[in-house]
Here is the input.
Amino acid sequence: MSHKAACLAVLGTGSDVGKSIVATALCRIFANRGLRVAPFKAQNMSNNSFVTNQGCEMGRAQVVQAQACRLAPDVRMNPVLLKPGSDTGSQVVVLGRAVGCMDVQEYVAYKPTAFEAVKKAYDGLSADFDLMVLEGAGSPAEINLKSHDIVNMRMAEHAGARVLLVGDIDRGGVFAALAGTMELLTEAERSRVTGYVLNKFRGDRSLLDPALSALFELTGRPVLGVVPWLRDLGLPEEDSVSFGQGFTCGDKRKDCLDVVCLALPRVSNFNDLDPLALEPDVRLRLVESPLDLTYAQLRALPQTARTVDFHCVEGWSVQDVPWSGVAFPDLLARVRLKSGATHVVFHSISPTKSRVSGTDHYIESFPLSELLRPELNCLLALDLEGAPLPHDRGAPARVVCPFDLAYKSIKFVNRVEFTDHSVPGWWTRANPIYPVDAPVPPRRLRVKDPRRG
Here is the structure.
């Protein structure tokens, strides 16, 4: 009688809930306990491929899991790799070799052949180990895909696996996702589920107790573990779900090198960027839609006039200064912003006399929400008193925000970026007496600051 390894399957309520990381952690835990353990994922959809010493392609997630097991990568750990080339088609790689490009219907027709290769790979690999850690893909409850599933419950059945169901509590709705997933499984599939793992938890663990009891009452399965939010693990991502988030690892120095990468709709092997993200003196940012505008193109945008007061930090003011230029709502309408953008950072072409915190030119940042409020009269000014800005007044363009002190009205603007956090300006870095937020004191205003309610 052939040896049959025990199997634990890590399935999830959706993509990017942390199945790969949980499976990787379990691989190392079991390996540390002296078990001969190996990872397995029947089908991986990812353009992040790894080439083995034999010249075969497999998913990087299973390579990391193999390392956690202290094993060399083996294509049998990921016998089917789908490398998307469009919304409806992928290159199909079986046991490390491309067998062709297929659209969805072609691949569905090919799946019985693929599953035979999957079962053969699993049976051959598992014969050498005590325990297999099987990872699923997406959700086992995708009712439009279950009839031709080869990676979730159908694979768990072939392996005789017990199932851990992982949910991402950081995104909200995790209890509905877990209960809903169980509801959509068949009774035979539900019988394989041993319990749940709540991943990415932040906060007081005791606050979960009522929900854990309710979930057990509803589904008859316990929460077996709560995994805290773990920042900057430095592990490569399996798929592109998280690519567009654009986060970098660790606290970055203020004088770090700024590297910008285009967040293209389709990307292959984006893990090649990981070394940059891990460097302490490099900030890696993703930009979806960079936009270059010439001075003439700025002039061609709708022009808005503003006659406003100008207030210097030194205590003097000039009333009724006539500016004109591009209102920020009109300018920002040309940019496709990412959902996480909260602040706008303006860069000046003018160098500073000294380098402060790694900055050798003037910069200022503003909350994006404020620049978009018409009643604040914020403007990228191109003209002063009916004529193009003279050089000493900030040509070719300067920011005008009349309810902020004038040091915020940065001159010589030549670059704008969007971030998910406030960035201290050069004046603030040079001298903390200049705060990041610099509203004009109410006693100096002739018109009430709308931000004060």
Notes: The chain is about 25% helix and 30% strand.
